[in-house]
Structures are given as C-alpha cells and as structure tokens.
Amino acid sequence: MKSPAAKSPQVLTTRAELRAAIRAAAPASLGFVPTMGALHSGHEQLFRQAREENELVVISIFVNELQFNDQQDYQRYPRDLQADVQVAARAGVDLVFAPAPQEVYHAGTPLIRLDSGALGRMYEGASRPGHFDGMLAVVAKLLHYADPGQGHYRAYFGQKDAQQLVLVRRMVADLDYPVQIRAVPIVRTAQGLALSSRNALLSQRQASAALVIHRAIELIAGRAARHEPLYLEDAVGLFQMEPEVELDYFVVVDPDTLQELAFNCQDTPFTGQGLILVAATVGGVRLIDNQPI
Ligand SMILES: Nc1ncnc2c1ncn2[C@@H]1O[C@H](COP(=O)(O)OP(=O)(O)OP(=O)(O)O)[C@@H](O)[C@H]1O
Ligand SMILES: CC(C)(CO)[C@@H](O)C(=O)[O-]
Ligand code: BAL
C-alpha cells in the first residue's frame, strides 16, 4: 500500500519570516537542527529525534563559508535544496530555514569573533584552521534565530562531529544560551562507513577504501572491550595498507575534554573510558569518525 504523502515543510529564507512563523506556532517545545544540507539518513535521524521530543521542528540549511578554510571544499560542497525539502518532509519537519549568505552575514564579515580556544585548534581545528571559530559564529546566530523565547528549546547535533558537539556545548554553557543540546548517535552504512554529505564526492572505489576507518576503529574498540593493551600502531598500520586513504589522526581521548589519553606503558591493559577519534582524507575528501570505548 502506498504510504500517505508527507506534509511539505514551510521553506523560509529570511530571519523575519522564521521569527514570525515560530511566534505564530507558539510551541510548548521547539527542536532545532542546524545543517549544511545535502541531507542523508544521518540528518534524518536528528530530525526524527527532534520530531519525537518537540511540538515544533525547525531545521536550517546553510553552507557557512566562514567555517571553510579551503575555498575548493566550500565551492564543491554538495547542494540540493529541492531534494533536501523532501527528506525534511519525510521526517516530519515543520519549518526549513534556508537563508542566503547575506541574510546571515547582513553586516558583512563579522567584526566580533568567537574564539573556540585551545580545543578548537586541535584535531579538526589543526587541519582546518579557523573552522571551529567559523562554526561557532554561525551556530551562535542560528540558535538566536530559532529561539522560541518560551517553552522548551532543544538543539540537535550528531555525535559524528564529536569535537563540534563538545565546543557547542561549551559555548552554550559559557554564554548562557537558554537551549538544551541533544546528541544523536552516528548513523552508518551497512558496511560501517559513517554517513556524511561529503561521501557523495567519493567514487565507489574510494568509498570502499574508506572502510578502513571502520576496520581500524573496530580493531581498537575490540581490544578495549576485552581490556587488552590497545597498540594503536596496529590501527595506523591498516591505513598504510590502503594507499588511497591518507590518515590525519587516530587518537584515544577523554570523552568530555577530548584531551588525548596518555598510556603509561605500551603493554598496559585498557580500562576506563575513552573516545577514539579518527580523520582521514580519501581523494582529497575529508572524512571523520569516532567511537566510545
Ligand atoms: N552519520 C551521521 N550520524 C549522525 N549525525 C550526523 C551524521 N552525519 C551528519 N550528522 C550531523 O548532522 C548535522 C549537520 O551536519 P552536516 O550538514 O555538516 O552534514 P555532514 O554529513 O556532517 O557533512 P560533512 O561531513 O560533509 O561536513 C551535524 O550535527 C552532524 O554531526
Ligand atoms: C553545525 C553546522 C550546521 C554549522 O554550520 C555545521 O557545522 C554542521 O552541519 O555540522
Ligand atoms: N559537519 C561539519 C561541518 C563541516 O565539515 O564544515
């Protein structure tokens, strides 16, 4: 039997329209999901969780130039608003905010900047200088735009972008934003590749080579679960066998602070808690992944 057509969300392009639509709805709770579009089942999971937990669901689709240190990466970032609206409809989203750059940066490039601090300069921040400052700049604005001003306000972020999640939580705490940050687990392909909009830029061969990321994570997570020594160099060795995949970092960090865990001795069995963080590029496409252990 054909399922009933999903109700199309309202698509809004100005801050004034968004504010008016949220005011008119006067929701008891609002779930907000910021995205850069090219929506996939990972995003859909965020929308569905927001749908379950809130009366009104608002998403934004905005490719934020300020968080790209590489113009080529910005230019080739996949964009397809029509397809995105269909994904949003399927997940029961009410409002899609899809502004033009001049609507968000209406006063030009911001003079007053947010500094993501030392954590913002590690891992992803080390390879993408300025990325997290630019990300926080837009998240700070978007969280204002979608603020219902009354009732519960929740914003949803994927665990896939673990460092982003920690920094957003920290910004919201440091600047007293009246919003609860909710984390959503990573959605993967059946083979284990974390879904990402950038996966669309991979050839089939590259996508299959990229599975080494998951294999390496599984190897170390298995050892951690058995309380064995981790021997991270074995994970690095797996990458050396995939010449198309260039490893940037493979580290085990504290899940809350993201500070790298020191292993006193190579042969020490792993106990306690950590988070594996990985980044690699495949054919120039940057992929990240992580897993708690
Ligand atoms: N596979 C996934 N599982 C869970 N959340 C995800 C997944 N992919 C993206 N998200 C989350 O969706 C939100 C929007 O992410 P974004 O639009 O940048 O998509 P993306 O697929 O992460 O893109 P890219 O990896 O190319 O930057 C972020 O909070 C991100 O963590
Ligand atoms: C949070 C975000 C939408 C800000 O541009 C982006 O960094 C993302 O999609 O993860
Ligand atoms: N999902 C993180 C956004 C970015 O790569 O710029």
Topology:
Layout: E1 10-12, H1 15-25, E2 29-35, H2 41-53, E3 56-61, H3 71-76, H4 81-90, E4 95-97, H5 101-104, H6 124-127, H7 131-145, E5 152-158, H8 162-174, E6 180-184, H9 204-209, H10 212-225, H11 232-240, E7 245-253, E8 275-282, E9 285-292
Parallel strand pairs: 1-4, 2-3, 2-5, 3-4, 5-6
Antiparallel strand pairs: 7-8, 8-9
GO molecular function, one term: pantoate-beta-alanine ligase activity
Binding site for ATP: 36-43, 158-161, 187, 195-198
Binding site for beta-alanine: 67
Question: Could you say how many structural domains there are in total?
Answer: 2
> Helical element count?
11
Global mean pLDDT: 95
Q: What is the level-2 CATH architecture name of the largest domain? A: 3-Layer(aba) Sandwich
Order of helices and strands: EHEHEHHEHHHEHEHHHEEE
Main sheet?
A: 6 strands, parallel
Strand proportion: 15-25%
CATH superfamily of the largest domain: HUPs
Distance between the termini: 43 Å
Number of strands: 9
User: Which consecutive residue ranges, at least 5 long each, have pLDDT under 50?
Assistant: none
Main structural class? alpha/beta
What share of the residues lie within helices? 25-40%
* CATH class membership of the largest domain: Alpha Beta
Give the ligands present: adenosine-5'-triphosphate, pantoate, beta-alanine
C-alpha geometry: globular
- Strand order, biggest sheet? 1-4-3-2-5-6
Binding site for beta-alanine: 67
Subunit structure: Homodimer.
Family: Belongs to the pantothenate synthetase family.
Keywords: ATP-binding, Cytoplasm, Ligase, Nucleotide-binding, Pantothenate biosynthesis
